[in-house]
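forwarding from the other thread:

> can someone predict this with iron/sulfur cluster?

sure thing
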Amino acid sequence: MVGDRREAVASRGVGALYVHVPFCAKKCAYCDFASCAIHRGDQRIDEYASAIMRQLGELESCGLLQGCKTAYVGGGTPSLMGADLLGSLVRSIRHHAPLVRELTCEANPDSLDDVTLESLRESCATRISIGVQSLSDDELASLGRLHDSRCAINRARAAVACGLDVSIDLMCAIPYQTSQSWQATLERARGLGVGHVSVYPLELVPNTPLGRRYATCHTPWNNEDVQARRMEVAAHVLGVAGYERYEVASYAISGKQCAHNKAYWTGVPYVGIGHAAAGMLNRRSYELLRQVATQLPALSNETARIRYRITSPWEAILHEPALAAASMWLEFLDEQQALAEDLMLGMRLCEGLGADLIDRAQETFGNGFSRAVDGLLQAGLVERSANRLVPTRRGWLLGNEIYMALWSLAPASTREAEV
Ligand code: SF4
């Protein structure tokens, strides 16, 4: 991935592309993601896909995609687009970003039929990420999911049989989950033949149905201790089956790590398009994007990294797909803030911080960095391994303490703008 970063910088483009599809068949009870419920086959899904394909052409025209190595179609529920439309979108990505070698589409079991799987394979998607969440029917019902465990197992197996690299998402610390049911979900999941598993604790968000339902209740199934225990059990059960943990929430068998997600955690510039999509650019890739997104402001000399999020409602993208019409929220990081962010993101990974990053941090932050590292070592949150600094088991569980200590090395406030 360090190689990817160099290649992306050398080509002046980005290393990764994210496309957001903000449509779902129904809102899940816990969801505060950027998605809305819509019927499969609704004409507006076609129009949205056309708009995105047009934007892909714009990104190619300014050279931003020439070194792009990974692409991710996320949501929402991309599989809700159906076989033909999703296949067309994947082919369009392949056309405009020909060097992409890993191309993932997200899917939900209830909308992932055999024809869609075949279409993904034929259009040269390489990977699918399926929102399984649980293999207990009571738990799935409590989350407001449309599938049951039988459907999830059937669809994951069909995706494996189709020849795609398959990842599944699982969720812990959810209503009705017990230590036994969690163990059973993990054991059934590891028997599916998938190469990658992501595991997340449920976050109870206030403005969701689940958040409201439990706002005034005691939720012992979701407290921090339970979350930590569930994550530990996942590490053990998946580890025994050969899934190596490589990031705080990600497990893979050999050769099946997600290159796209690793790009996010290793400072590779990426571009995001579609409603609510995020991107991270260096100065050169920002200047390329600015050739088509002409509303973007000029950079000040101090800016080293630019983060952005598309704030245009999806309906607005249908009516005016040109990137020059997109509304965006922007955040500008200076050299120190970009480096502190790299340190923080690096600590999400099992491999932690390498010598390169440690040397740069030492040069830039001097004693501040030494003190932060000493504090983390003494707290048992990180340890030295060869010439690297890596999170400990305790560090996995208390990641926020590590991230705060490293982020606070840089000046606190970044500059923001809206266009
Ligand atoms: S499928 Fe995912 S994005 Fe869609 S409503 Fe459920 S949790 Fe949200």
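The chain has two domains: 2-262, 342-407. thats all i got for now
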